[in-house]
Amino acid sequence: MVRTETPVCDFGQSAPDFRLPGVDGKIWTLNEARGKNGLLVMFICNHCPYVKSVRDRIIRDARELKQQGVNSVAIMSNDPADYPEDSFDNMKRVAQELNFPFPYLYDETQEVAKTYGAVCTPDFFGYNRDLKLQYRGRLDESRKEAVPNARRDLFEAMKQVAQTGQGPKDQIPSMGCSIKWKGTQE
């Protein structure tokens, strides 16, 4: 497992479009995923211990952000040939077991992850209503293991984005497992 941190937020960068299959049997695009006040794009997977440790908090925050008019979408871009736990069938199983309140999409070619510049799981991209990047930081201050009353960086930032269109200037990078690119050994 290679620990990786996300780069700083490139404020105002447009959200790249995508067209990806979801575990719900639907093909999703950027426009179909967006909310009236923004969109949270998350790169996650099934096998990463960082993602596993924060899934419940991601689900909680996605549900609460929806009430703010911010939709969420999760994209899995790892190579399941080397990481079978990340297969499409296992994506379906995990999404169903955990009752994901957001589409869970499969980026088989890994082109979407590359276009976004995703580097790890989890990697969060928070966009405003105009689909301009406003947040590229961590989920919360507890990082991997949940800490009671931890500051919810992602939720607070996206709530601010929903209300003002602007994200916080100071952001702390997310960290997680590197994306498992096809043709690389880790």
UniProtKB/TrEMBL annotation:
InterPro entries per the UniProt record, alphabetical: AhpC/TSA, PRX-like1, Thioredoxin-like_sf, Thioredoxin_domain
GO MF terms, alphabetically ordered: antioxidant activity; oxidoreductase activity
Pfam families cross-referenced by the UniProt entry: AhpC-TSA
Residue segments, region Disordered: 163-186
Species lineage: Bacteria, Pseudomonadati, Pseudomonadota, Gammaproteobacteria, Acidiferrobacterales
Residues covered by the Thioredoxin domain: 9-160
Name under which the protein is recorded: Alkyl hydroperoxide reductase
